[in-house]
Protein backbone atom coordinates (compact mmCIF):
# COMPACT_ATOMS: atom_id res chain seq x y z
CA UNK A 1 0.00 0.00 0.00
CA UNK A 2 2.76 2.46 0.97
CA UNK A 3 4.68 1.76 -2.25
CA UNK A 4 1.51 2.60 -4.17
CA UNK A 5 1.23 5.93 -2.29
CA UNK A 6 4.84 6.80 -3.15
CA UNK A 7 4.19 6.03 -6.83
CA UNK A 8 1.03 8.13 -6.94
CA UNK A 9 2.74 10.99 -5.07
CA UNK A 10 5.53 10.95 -7.64
CA UNK A 11 2.94 11.19 -10.44
CA UNK A 12 1.28 14.31 -8.99
CA UNK A 13 4.50 15.87 -7.69
CA UNK A 14 4.62 18.71 -10.25
CA UNK A 15 0.94 19.54 -9.84
CA UNK A 16 1.24 19.69 -6.06
CA UNK A 17 4.35 21.87 -6.23
CA UNK A 18 2.62 24.27 -8.63
CA UNK A 19 -0.48 24.41 -6.41
CA UNK A 20 1.65 25.06 -3.30
CA UNK A 21 3.38 27.95 -5.09
CA UNK A 22 0.01 29.36 -6.12
CA UNK A 23 -1.25 29.21 -2.52
CA UNK A 24 1.81 30.66 -0.79
CA UNK A 25 3.19 33.10 -3.34
CA UNK A 26 6.86 32.32 -2.69
CA UNK A 27 9.16 29.38 -3.32
CA UNK A 28 10.39 28.86 0.24
CA UNK A 29 6.91 28.67 1.76
CA UNK A 30 5.75 26.55 -1.19
CA UNK A 31 8.51 24.01 -0.53
CA UNK A 32 7.58 23.89 3.16
CA UNK A 33 3.92 23.39 2.30
CA UNK A 34 4.76 20.62 -0.18
CA UNK A 35 6.92 18.82 2.39
CA UNK A 36 4.20 19.09 5.06
CA UNK A 37 1.68 17.73 2.57
CA UNK A 38 3.89 14.83 1.47
CA UNK A 39 4.52 13.92 5.11
CA UNK A 40 0.80 14.03 5.91
CA UNK A 41 -0.02 11.92 2.84
CA UNK A 42 2.56 9.28 3.78
CA UNK A 43 1.58 9.21 7.45
CA UNK A 44 -2.11 8.88 6.55
CA UNK A 45 -1.65 6.35 3.74
CA UNK A 46 -3.95 3.94 5.55
CA UNK A 47 -6.83 6.42 5.20
CA UNK A 48 -6.57 6.59 1.41
CA UNK A 49 -9.16 4.41 -0.32
CA UNK A 50 -7.91 2.61 -3.40
CA UNK A 51 -9.82 3.69 -6.50
CA UNK A 52 -10.49 7.27 -5.39
CA UNK A 53 -8.90 10.28 -7.06
CA UNK A 54 -5.45 10.51 -5.44
CA UNK A 55 -4.69 13.96 -6.81
CA UNK A 56 -7.93 15.41 -5.40
CA UNK A 57 -7.17 13.78 -2.03
CA UNK A 58 -3.64 15.22 -2.01
CA UNK A 59 -4.80 18.71 -3.06
CA UNK A 60 -7.42 18.69 -0.31
CA UNK A 61 -4.76 17.80 2.26
CA UNK A 62 -2.51 20.60 0.97
CA UNK A 63 -5.32 23.14 1.00
CA UNK A 64 -6.28 22.20 4.56
CA UNK A 65 -2.68 22.47 5.77
CA UNK A 66 -2.36 25.88 4.12
CA UNK A 67 -5.61 27.12 5.70
CA UNK A 68 -4.63 25.84 9.15
CA UNK A 69 -1.19 27.48 8.91
CA UNK A 70 -2.78 30.73 7.76
CA UNK A 71 -5.18 30.71 10.71
CA UNK A 72 -2.28 30.11 13.11
CA UNK A 73 -0.43 33.10 11.68
CA UNK A 74 -3.51 35.29 11.98
CA UNK A 75 -3.99 34.23 15.61
CA UNK A 76 -0.38 35.14 16.34
CA UNK A 77 -0.99 38.58 14.86
CA UNK A 78 1.30 38.09 11.90
CA UNK A 79 0.55 40.38 9.01
CA UNK A 80 0.74 38.74 5.59
CA UNK A 81 1.43 41.22 2.81
CA UNK A 82 2.00 39.64 -0.59
CA UNK A 83 2.05 42.96 -2.46
CA UNK A 84 5.22 44.20 -4.16
CA UNK A 85 7.47 46.12 -1.74
CA UNK A 86 5.08 45.29 1.12
CA UNK A 87 2.84 48.15 0.02
CA UNK A 88 0.16 47.68 2.67
CA UNK A 89 2.61 47.34 5.54
CA UNK A 90 4.63 50.37 4.44
CA UNK A 91 1.63 52.55 3.59
CA UNK A 92 0.85 53.55 7.18
CA UNK A 93 1.25 57.29 7.65
CA UNK A 94 0.62 57.37 11.38
CA UNK A 95 3.62 57.01 13.63
CA UNK A 96 3.44 56.67 17.36
CA UNK A 97 6.31 57.77 19.56
CA UNK A 98 7.44 55.17 22.05
CA UNK A 99 7.74 56.98 25.37
CA UNK A 100 9.52 53.99 26.83
CA UNK A 101 12.56 54.77 24.70
CA UNK A 102 13.00 58.15 26.32
CA UNK A 103 12.18 57.12 29.89
CA UNK A 104 14.40 54.06 30.28
CA UNK A 105 17.62 53.01 28.69
CA UNK A 106 18.19 49.51 27.43
CA UNK A 107 20.86 49.07 30.09
CA UNK A 108 18.33 49.87 32.84
CA UNK A 109 15.86 47.38 31.42
CA UNK A 110 18.53 44.67 31.24
CA UNK A 111 19.40 45.38 34.88
CA UNK A 112 15.73 45.05 35.83
CA UNK A 113 15.43 41.71 34.02
CA UNK A 114 18.69 40.51 35.58
CA UNK A 115 17.30 41.23 39.05
CA UNK A 116 14.41 38.80 38.50
CA UNK A 117 14.60 35.36 40.14
CA UNK A 118 16.08 32.74 37.80
CA UNK A 119 12.77 30.89 37.53
CA UNK A 120 11.28 33.99 35.86
CA UNK A 121 14.36 35.39 34.14
CA UNK A 122 15.23 32.44 31.91
CA UNK A 123 11.74 31.88 30.42
CA UNK A 124 11.33 35.65 29.97
CA UNK A 125 14.61 36.00 28.04
CA UNK A 126 13.76 33.03 25.86
CA UNK A 127 10.34 34.53 25.04
CA UNK A 128 12.01 37.88 24.38
CA UNK A 129 14.40 36.19 21.95
CA UNK A 130 11.46 34.74 20.01
CA UNK A 131 11.08 31.23 21.34
CA UNK A 132 7.52 29.94 21.42
CA UNK A 133 6.06 28.93 24.77
CA UNK A 134 6.04 25.24 23.88
CA UNK A 135 9.71 25.42 22.83
CA UNK A 136 10.60 27.10 26.13
CA UNK A 137 8.68 24.45 28.07
CA UNK A 138 10.51 21.69 26.23
CA UNK A 139 13.97 23.24 26.71
CA UNK A 140 13.39 23.95 30.40
CA UNK A 141 11.60 20.64 30.96
CA UNK A 142 8.61 22.35 32.57
CA UNK A 143 4.85 22.23 31.94
CA UNK A 144 3.53 24.72 29.38
CA UNK A 145 1.20 26.36 31.92
CA UNK A 146 4.11 26.92 34.30
CA UNK A 147 6.12 28.64 31.56
CA UNK A 148 3.19 30.88 30.61
CA UNK A 149 2.61 31.93 34.20
CA UNK A 150 6.32 32.59 34.83
CA UNK A 151 6.53 34.85 31.79
CA UNK A 152 3.32 36.60 32.83
CA UNK A 153 4.62 37.20 36.36
CA UNK A 154 8.01 38.32 35.02
CA UNK A 155 6.28 40.93 32.88
CA UNK A 156 4.18 42.05 35.83
CA UNK A 157 7.26 42.38 38.08
CA UNK A 158 9.14 44.29 35.37
CA UNK A 159 6.20 46.66 34.90
CA UNK A 160 6.17 47.39 38.65
CA UNK A 161 9.94 47.93 38.69
CA UNK A 162 9.67 50.23 35.67
CA UNK A 163 6.86 52.26 37.25
CA UNK A 164 8.83 52.57 40.51
CA UNK A 165 11.93 53.74 38.60
CA UNK A 166 9.88 56.35 36.74
CA UNK A 167 8.35 57.66 39.97
CA UNK A 168 11.84 58.12 41.39
CA UNK A 169 12.84 60.15 38.31
CA UNK A 170 9.81 62.43 38.55
Helix content: over 70%
Largest sheet: none
- How many β-strand stretches? 0
The structural domain count equals 2
State the fourth-level CATH superfamily of the largest domain.
RNA polymerase sigma factor, region 2, helix turn helix motif
> At the third CATH level, what is the topology name of the largest domain?
Rna Polymerase Sigma Factor, Chain: A
Structural class: mainly alpha
Number of helices: 10
Query: How are helices and strands ordered from N to C?
Result: HHHHHHHHHH
Radius of gyration: 24 Å
Question: What would CATH call the class of the largest domain?
Answer: Mainly Alpha
What gross morphology would you assign?
elongated
Which percent band covers the strand fraction? Answer: under 5%
Q: If you average the pLDDT, what whole number results?
A: 84
Low-confidence stretches: none
Assembly category:
single chain
State the CATH architecture of the largest domain.
Orthogonal Bundle
Q: How widely separated are the two ends? A: 74 Å
Describe the structure.
The chain has helices at residues 2-11, 13-24, 27-43, 54-75, 87-90, 99-103, 106-114, 118-128, 133-140, 144-169. The chain has two domains: 2-81, RNA polymerase sigma factor, region 2, helix turn helix motif (Rna Polymerase Sigma Factor, Chain: A); 102-169, Arc Repressor Mutant, subunit A, CATH 1.10.10.10. It is mainly α and 170 residues long. 11% of the residues are buried. The N and C termini lie far apart (74 Å). The model has no long low-confidence stretch (mean pLDDT 84). The protein contains ten helices and no strands.
Amino acid sequence: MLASIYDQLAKVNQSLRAFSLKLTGNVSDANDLYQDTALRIISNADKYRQGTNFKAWAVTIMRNIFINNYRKKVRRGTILDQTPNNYYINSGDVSVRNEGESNASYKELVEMVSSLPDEFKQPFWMAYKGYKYDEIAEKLDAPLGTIKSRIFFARRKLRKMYEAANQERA
